[in-house]
Every structure is written in C-alpha cells, then in structure tokens.
Amino acid sequence: SSNEYNSEGEPRNTCYSFELPLALFAKVIPPAKSAPCKVTFETNKAPPAMGALFEDVLNSQPDAKALVSNPNAIGFMYPNGVDVTILISKNAYKYRIQSSQFEGLWMITKELTKRLKRAHADDEEKLQFVYTDPIPLQDMFELMDEHFKQRLITIEQNEVLAKRAQQYRIVQKRLLVRFKDKNPTQLNHLDYLLHSSYMQILDCATIIEDAQNQMKMISSRLSLSIELILLLLELRVSLTDEGAEILRNCLSPVIDDDSETGWEEITDASMTHLLRTCLAKNQRENATTTSTLKIPANTENLKKHITIVCDRLSNGYKIAL
C-alpha cells in the first residue's frame, strides 16, 4: 500500500495485492506415504502430471525433478519443517493432500486448486470440485482453544503485573519518606519487600512475554486453519463471490492480538448475526439484537455457532446481504 496526497492536499491510499511464487515458501521433497492430517476432493477432469503442474517449482530447485519419479505424487516442505504431500488416485480423478500438521494443508491445497483451474481454463466443460467429507472443524477448534488459553494467561498476568507495580510504588514511596526523615527509623524489612516486589514484576513480565510469543505463533496456525476451512467450504458449497466475501469477513483469518476486542468476541458476534439473518431457519430466528462485546468464559458458544453456520451452508442455505 502507498499513501499520497492529491492536488487538493487530501490524503489518498492505494493498495495492491499480489501472490508470491510458491518456490519462496516450499521446496520439493520425496512424497510421504502417510500423514495424520489429510483432505480429499475430486474433480470432473483427468489430473495432469504433478511434474507439469508444478514445473516452475521444480525448475527453481536443483535436482528437484529427480525427487518426482511418480507423476501421481509430489511432496513439499515449508521452512518450518512441516511437510505436505499431494497424491492422485490412479483409478479416479481424486486428489489427497496430507500433512504432518493441519494448518500446513492450506497453502498447497489452495495452490493445487488454483493451478488446476488454470490448467483447464480453456476447456469447454468447466472444471468442478467435489468435496464430500465432513468439514474438519475439530482441528481448528483445538487451535482456537489454545489461542484463547494463551490470551487468558496474558490478561490474568497483566492484572497481576498492575497489582505488583502498584505495590512496588507504595513500598518505594515509604522508603523515600524514611530516607528523607531527619530522624530515620528502622526499615522494618521494607528494603526486602521492595526487592521482592521487583522480582515479582520481572516474573510477571516474563510470563506475559512467553504467553504473547505463544499466542502469536498459535494465531498464525489458527489463521491458516481458518483459511483451509474457508477453502473447503468453497469446494463443498456453491458460494457466490459475494457470499464468499461475507463469510470471510465473518470468519476472518486475520487475527489481531493487539486489539482491545479479541478475535473470539468479534467472530462469535459475526456468526450469531449470520444465524439471525440470512442463515436463519425461520422468522423467529430472524431477529437482530445488539449486545456488548466482552470476553467469554470459554469458546463453547463460538464453536457451536461456527458448527451451525457450516452445517446450514452444507444444507443449501445461501449467504447474501
């Protein structure tokens, strides 16, 4: 994005989005035979050879072509060590993407669908994707719980830090009064209390820093898992461009941990709004209410609302303004 001013001195902002080459994020490795996390979808077109579909990635890596001896399989590894493999069925137009981590599935799955669309762009019959397996929400929910846990730790320790800092200032003030007194009295272990308060502040700060680092890492993993869920919903449900954009805005993969209002509250409110408007079952459900966003005790309601939204989309409900 760039910021500039027009001839009248009014600020203008210009944004442009573009995709970086896959070779910057993944290198080719021998395909894995099995992995704990996987997604499978079918198409109505004969699959191309993996070497031809990812030719640019193979050309950017020396000796990469020797690692793709099977035209129906190719493996990738991200810089963090997570591996992903694409396997093609020999007897059907079926693709299986498997990875050692759930969130690792998204980028390669997204890249595969994009390249398949591009490969069949000139065909008379339109390329169709068929995804019939259940949406793997539980894997996303586990990351969601871990993110919320780290967030609660940060909030709790910030409150403790504020109390310890107040205690430190009180003790410090009393010591200063003793030092300024013309007839000073005994410290009565105030110096020890001051040192103890200081060490407690350092401990709280360390816990907060660790929790924030953990939350940042979990946020990235959760964001990728949300991207995968959105992609699978697009493959399973015939979403319009407007519907896909609305769903992305409501179940947003953008997680801002620095915001005063957390991702959990915003997402739950968005899911509730969908269920009370365009995804409402009947007129009784179709009623909007306003409520203040506050941090929940747990993520159970959020999980419930996300599950209902996914179920109703799978059952043919449409998202529209």
Explain the overall architecture.
This protein is of the alpha+beta class and 321 residues long. It has eight helices and eight strands. The protein has a six-stranded antiparallel sheet, with helices on one face. A hairpin with a 5-residue loop joins strand 6 (83-88) and strand 7. Helix 3 (105-119) packs parallel to helix 5 (190-236), helix 4 (137-180) packs antiparallel against helix 5 (190-236) and helix 7 packs across helix 8. It is elongated, with a radius of gyration of 27 Å. The chain starts with a strand and ends in a 7-residue tail after the last helix.
Strands, helices and their partners?
Blueprint: E1 2-5, E2 11-14, E3 27-29, E4 37-43, H1 50-53, H2 55-59, E5 73-77, E6 83-88, E7 94-99, H3 105-119, E8 129-130, H4 137-180, H5 190-236, H6 241-250, H7 263-276, H8 300-314
Antiparallel strand pairs: 1-2, 3-5, 4-7, 4-8, 5-6, 6-7
Helix pairs in contact: 3-5, 4-5, 7-8
Keywords:
321 residues, alpha+beta, 6-stranded antiparallel sheet, two-stranded antiparallel ribbon, 8 strands, 48% helix, elongated
Brief summary of the model shown:
The protein is an alpha+beta fold and 321 residues long.
Task: Tell me the distance between the termini.
Answer: 28 Å
Oligomer: single chain
Order of helices and strands: EEEEHHEEEHEHHHHH
Biggest sheet features: 6 strands, antiparallel
The structural class is: alpha+beta
Mean pLDDT: 89
Shape, principal axes of CA atoms: elongated
Order of the strands making up the biggest sheet: 3-5-6-7-4-8
Number of extended strands: 8
List segments where confidence is low: pLDDT < 50 over at least 5 consecutive residues.
Answer: none
> What's the tally of helices?
8
Q: What proportion of the residues is helical, as a percent range?
A: 40-55%
Strand content: 5-15%
- Radius of gyration (CA) equals 27 Å
